[in-house]
């Protein structure tokens, strides 16, 4: 299936959802709720090694909650990350492949079950392969600072992303989800790579923000979106894992800067301490508030809405119920 048909699949899903599809919620968070220990350089991706069945269970829980798009477990899964764990290249690549396979299996099993039930309100979900930023791989919280240092060039970022992207694309997801991109250079690297690799799968690129105005690097979103707006591979641009109270302003901003669809899936409002590897309490929003926010974000034009870290299936259930009530 070519790029155009895959774009159409996504557009069709959004239409079926009444104009706004639901992305799942915090994947790592739900793993932890089930007792997974992810205080690890691989973070949520450590479960690909330790407990793949749990990954499938979490995908199923988000599908059950009403997610129209499930994001795979590959956010912090990288070949260098697996190599430094003593795995071989073949083993590393097969874990990346497995991240897509687990989500596809969960989606197919869930759809097989619900599509037989008359009057159900679900859509056949799409699988988005997660591609975390270089900062996520560094595991030092730099996806929230955008500060990669002077030695990190455009080519270095492309080299970092290239093989993982190839393997994930080959595994056959419906979509690619670049997550928590903190600066313009990495956004550009991702876009150029999609073109160089002639990728035939639609992608979204999401930035983080720590001030509600700019990318973490301090660059404006106008600068960051420049390369993305010109790319035929990019279906949507937006924000993930930033606090919910920033989202309204950011949607308004993005709406002026791009014709791409807008995707938002904020965290609960807690703040990640990259050194201590824990979430610090801050202004934190619950499911009821998310439900109210989601309506507002939809009315402002967001086409894909979900949750990120510290949100759970109950958050997604609230959002889904709200957005599909029409
Ligand atoms: C989205 S953050 C909470 C993921 C974890 C981070 N990259 C780390 O390893 O510290
Ligand atoms: N989708 C990621 C989080 C991105 S910040 C995960 O939960 O593994
Ligand atoms: Zn997150």
From TrEMBL:
Cofactor: Zn(2+)
Record bears the keyword Transmembrane helix: no
Pfam families: S-methyl_trans (PF02574)
Coiled coil (UniProt feature): none
Residue numbers binding Zn(2+): 241, 308-309
Molecular functions (GO terms): metal ion binding; S-adenosylmethionine-homocysteine S-methyltransferase activity
This protein's UniProt keywords: Metal-binding, Methyltransferase, Transferase, Zinc
Any one Gene Ontology BP term: methylation
Domain Hcy-binding: 9-323
PROSITE patterns: HCY
The protein's role, per its UniProt record: Catalyzes methyl transfer from S-methylmethionine (SMM) to adenosyl-L-homocysteine (AdoMet). SMM degradation (by HMT-1, HMT-2 and HMT-3) and biosynthesis (by MMT1) constitute the SMM cycle in plants, which is probably required to achieve short term control of AdoMet level.
PANTHER family registered for this protein in UniProt: HOMOCYSTEINE S-METHYLTRANSFERASE 1 (PTHR46015:SF7), ZGC:172121 (PTHR46015)
Protein name: Homocysteine-binding domain
Organism: Arabidopsis suecica
